[in-house]
Amino acid sequence: MKLSIPRACGSWSKSPPVSTTLHKPISFYSSIPSSSPLKPQVPLFLRPPIHSATLSDLQKWHHWAKTLPVPHSDDPPDPTLLRRELKWLLEDALEVHSSVPQMGSHSDDRPIKLRTSLEQLYSVWRQRIEERRPFQYVVGCEHWRDLVLSVQDGVLIPRPETEVFVDLVGDVVTQNGDLTQGLWADLGTGSGAIAIGIGRILGPRGRVIATDLSPVAVSVASFNVQRYSLQKAVVFLDGLRKGKLTYLTGLIEGKPGKVCFWLYGKALLGSQFHPWVFGSASG
Q1: What is the pLDDT of residues 257-273, one digit of tens each?
Q2: Can you give the pTM of this predicted structure?
Q3: Are 243 and 28 in contact (CB under 8 A)?
Q4: Is residue 190 left, alpha or beta, with left meaning phi > 0 and alpha meaning psi from -120 to 50?
Q5: Where is pLDDT greater, at 128 or 75?
Q6: Distance CA 165, CA 184 (A)
Q7: Domain limits of the chain?
């Protein structure tokens, strides 16, 4: 399947040169401990089912949600997508997914265990419809590749087209297995999606340095890294303090509207990048 990156910082170039001499990473500092001081929002599907509502009340909410008017807009949401999102929201909120087919049945006062309150379900769906709040922020997660990543307001939602950067790393590592021992960097890591994807490819011998100027993003990315047990593969560098990275094997840099990828200073996407030395983690 042909991959396209409409918002990347350039067009495809020739296949990257793979060096036979691996640059060894030097020591680095200003790492962020795995326990970030900010507590990220837990995705809805991971919350404990400590709330409850009767099936009848849940049916009333479901009917209200399906019939909530969509404000007039030049670019209205797709009704089919909204119905699908409503089903996903319900599945994430329910302790037992088998309760979903019963939503159209007769009134029933049986208690149903929920991962959020019924009042909150009314609130978040109203935000989705009337305020056009992204669905990923409503449920607190995004499906990216084979990952389910925590996201929240203040953290960019991983875009499907950025999955190609993990594929690129997989390709070059397949050509030269020594690259799994290298030091990679993900600048502007956001939710940590790319860093986690690369960390899984590199295995125990490689390391990914992830940075972000946003403390909220670092907190969310740390949560995602811990959830996939990659604390040894992905290490965070505080973008607000001075740090030093040299002899990088590869670098992925996220900027508003584009993402760039470099391997040994050779740009696959974007302008040529020469020095592999950074005076600070903020660039």
Answers
A1: 566 777 655 544 443 33
A2: 0.78
A3: yes
A4: left
A5: 128
A6: 12
A7: 44-139, 155-269
